[in-house]
């Protein structure tokens, strides 16, 4: 436990405990904590103060596994990159296989928003999004955080009907997470001349594609681009997960395998004979957004923070400007996004542009189409981005261990799928859930939230539901935090 705690601390962190027991002092010492004993309180002879040595003392913490192993991650989008980075940071050798390359599909998104999903304080989505945001900030690669991320808030136009209920819950929230801004305050916070009343929600603008590539550059990660995985098999003798291409050739193998290949995940499970009933289907929704020079967008010219209403607009962080090869002397914005259902004809650029303009109306100040508002057509230098989101109907990701064969020979397979339209919010959190499960560390989420995102959540809920007429009982503790009993459960 002290090793896991150390991993969450920065060098210089301070710790105090009433305990001066030898095992506690030894464990703290091994994890890199300087200590001193002081006179205790309330009749106790001694107490302990400790501080974490710098530099890099936290990396000396050892996991409960005797040694880090090897991992295979299928998918080099945000979900896969976050998992690879979380495992590599724990000393694992990670091979990432992707049919395209780093951020080669939907995670090529130039930039997007990650923010608190405001609701009642204890509501599941609010708790999950708070954790998601915390873990995203903790997972930022050192030294390049400022280029990847901008702002500490996302402003949501308050007049949206779906936010009406927020007023009832707002006073429960600490103002660092959620507060209501009058128009003048919203204008100052957003950098706009004219702004509506808005909810200030903790959040940031994130350079999605650049973050994904930065995660994949961590030491210990080997990226294999152009590697489409056709099937997975666990080699029973060696206990390794093996990935094969369409011709049956072995691409790579490792002790642990994480499927982070979005819509390709369920397909790959089926092709590998590892499908299991109960996993929520993933629905595909295409979406489009535009990168535009700020000075071509009249009313939004001064935008400094992410703003939302039906659609969103955000200033492009420096890393995204560099990745797109844009002029760093100019300011650039990204405006999105459409939701286009699979099976319907794709929207034209013009349709998408008009839809986004209409969705941003509360932030445009002037009437649509007028000089101060939204141009009638995308400016000629606008870059269009289109991608496909794969998500479950309940909009929660599928994260956890996969009870592949329900026997011990098929263990060590994990899913991080279904990021939908919130990949920036969920990826780092999902990666921590999986890495902590693999390493036997305390989970980053409470049990009910782990169950809410587990790929077999429907089955877990059914198990927990009382039979009609029966006295309600608390939900059974999930085995291995998920469903497949392992090592007698935890
Ligand atoms: C227009 C638009 C705007 C968006 N805005 C936001 C936003 O503001 N905030 C936010 O949080 N999210 C936003 N999103 C969603 C976000 O982009 C996604 O949630 C995220 O990129 C999903 O990441 P992923 O790693 O799950 O999937 P992907 O990025 O799709 O990565 C999956 C990878 O798996 C690979 N793969 C698949 N099958 C195989 C196989 N068999 N073998 C090998 N490789 C395979 C693919 O090549 C791909 O690289 C937006 C999306 C769109 C389209």
Short characterization:
This protein has helices at about 1-5, 20-30, 80-90, 125-140, 145-150, 165-170, 185-190, 210-215, 265-270, 320-325, 350-360, 360-365, 425-440, 445-455, 455-465, and strands at about 15, 35-40, 45-50, 70-75, 95-100, 110-115, 150, 155, 180, 200-205, 220-225, 230-235, 240-245, 250-255, 255-260, 285-295, 305-310, 310-315, 330-335, 340, 385-390, 400, 415. With about 500 residues, it is an alpha+beta fold.
Structure description:
This protein is of the alpha+beta class and 490 residues long. The protein folds into 3 domains: 59 residues, no CATH class; 218 residues, FAD/NAD(P)-binding domain (3-Layer(bba) Sandwich); 160 residues, 2-Layer Sandwich (D-Amino Acid Oxidase, Chain A, domain 2), CATH 3.30.9. It is 26% helix and 24% strand. The protein has 15 helices and 23 strands. The strands form 4 sheets. Strands 6, 7, 8, 9, 10, 16, 17, 18, 19, 20 and 21 form an 11-stranded mixed beta sheet that branches. It has a 6-stranded mixed beta sheet with strand order 11-5-4-15-23-22, covered by helices on one side. Strands 1-3-2 form a 3-stranded antiparallel beta sheet, covered by helices on one side. The longest helix has 17 residues. It is globular. 45% of the residues are buried. The C terminus is likely disordered. Flavin-adenine dinucleotide (FAD) binds next to α3, β5, β6, α9 and β16.
